[in-house]
């Protein structure tokens, strides 16, 4: 993964922004991301092409997890739920029923701690401003 070295270089500042990420294992997060996420979201967090346009099934392609995507717009609890429960279940639990998600559930594959390691790895790619916005949303529950 080309972005791995860069992400480890900025790891200290990336994880300090939110206490939930203070003790995360970025190396484990990178390996778990490569094994479970990269096939859809890209080896370099780039997402699938044309990710903002739904396919014929009405489902959007996998978005990027770098700053060009919208992952950093969501609070940590939603991101964890989205990963563990799958997109449809996580959104339905929040009253969103008019959005079709292609995100499968990983609750039988990953633990919450592993998801947080993956998220720490992803967050390490974001600029400070995006990490701060995401941290504030996590604390405010948006």
Topology readout:
Layout: H1 3-9, H2 11-16, H3 26-36, H4 38-41, H5 76-85, H6 87-92, H7 112-123, H8 128-140
Helix pairs in contact: 3-7, 5-7
Keywords: Electron transport, Heme, Iron, Metal-binding, Respiratory chain, Transport
Domain Cytochrome c: 24-126
GO molecular function: electron transfer activity; heme binding; iron ion binding
Description:
It is a single chain. This protein has helices spanning 3-9, 11-16, 26-36, 38-41, 76-85, 87-92, 112-123, 128-140. The radius of gyration is 14 Å and the shape is globular. Residues 4-17 have low confidence and may be disordered. The termini are far apart. The protein has 8 helices and no strands. The chain has a single domain, classed as Orthogonal Bundle (Cytochrome Bc1 Complex, Chain D, domain 2), CATH 1.10.760.10. The protein is mainly alpha-helical.
Identify the overall geometry.
globular
Structural Rg: 14 Å
* End-to-end C-alpha gap: 31 Å
Q: Do you know the CATH architecture?
A: Orthogonal Bundle
Percent of residues in helical segments?
Answer: 40-55%
Relative strand content: under 5%
Structural class: mainly alpha
Q: Tell me the CATH superfamily.
A: Cytochrome c-like domain
How many domains, as an integer?
Answer: 1
Largest sheet: none
Low-confidence stretches: 4-17
Oligomeric assembly: single chain
Cofactor: heme c
Keywords: Electron transport, Heme, Iron, Metal-binding, Respiratory chain, Transport
Pfam families: Cytochrome_CBB3 (PF13442)
InterPro entries: Cyt_c-like_dom, Cyt_c-like_dom_sf, Cyt_C_IC, Cytochrome_c-type_DH
């Amino acid at each position: 993964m080309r972005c791995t070295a860069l992400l480890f270089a900025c790891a200290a500042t990336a994880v300090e922004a939110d206490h939930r990420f203070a003790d995360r294992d970025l190396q484990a997060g990178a390996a778990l991301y490569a094994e479970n996420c990269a096939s859809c979201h890209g080896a370099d967090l780039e997402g699938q092409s044309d990710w903002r346009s739904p396919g014929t099934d009405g489902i959007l392609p996998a978005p990027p997890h770098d700053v060009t995507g919208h992952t950093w717009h969501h609070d940590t609890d939603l991101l964890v739920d989205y990963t563990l429960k799958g997109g449809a279940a996580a959104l339905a639990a929040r009253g969103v029923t008019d959005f079709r998600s292609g995100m499968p559930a990983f609750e039988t594959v990953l633990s919450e701690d592993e998801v947080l390691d993956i998220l720490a790895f992803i967050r390490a790619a974001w600029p400070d401003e995006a990490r701060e916005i995401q941290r504030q949303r996590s604390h405010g529950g948006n």
